[in-house]
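User: Okay, second chain of the day. Same drill as before: sequence in, structure tokens out.
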Amino acid sequence: MDQISAGRYRAAHDQEDHMTDTPDVRVGQIWADNDPRSAGRYVIVEAVNDTHAMVAQCGPHGTIHQKARRTEIRLTRMRPTSNGYRLERDA
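Assistant: Same drill. Structure tokens below.
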């Protein structure tokens, strides 16, 4: 592999590693959905395991809705990308 190819290979893998960084997701944090189709959707983390966060839909200040929908979200989606989540309030 020549020097240029090696540099491209390294850059591509550095970017992949950055994209798969799993943030420190903890119980009590409030996350906002970045998907424009879900504008205004907030979730609060109720439990975390090795691969998923169990969340409940809530308001921006953490008030859980009376009939809150609960779901699991892969930890790899808990990052500020267009189809991910951004941390609004730490626990």
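The beta strands are 30-33, 42-48, 52-58, 70-74, 85-89.

User: Thanks, on to the next one.
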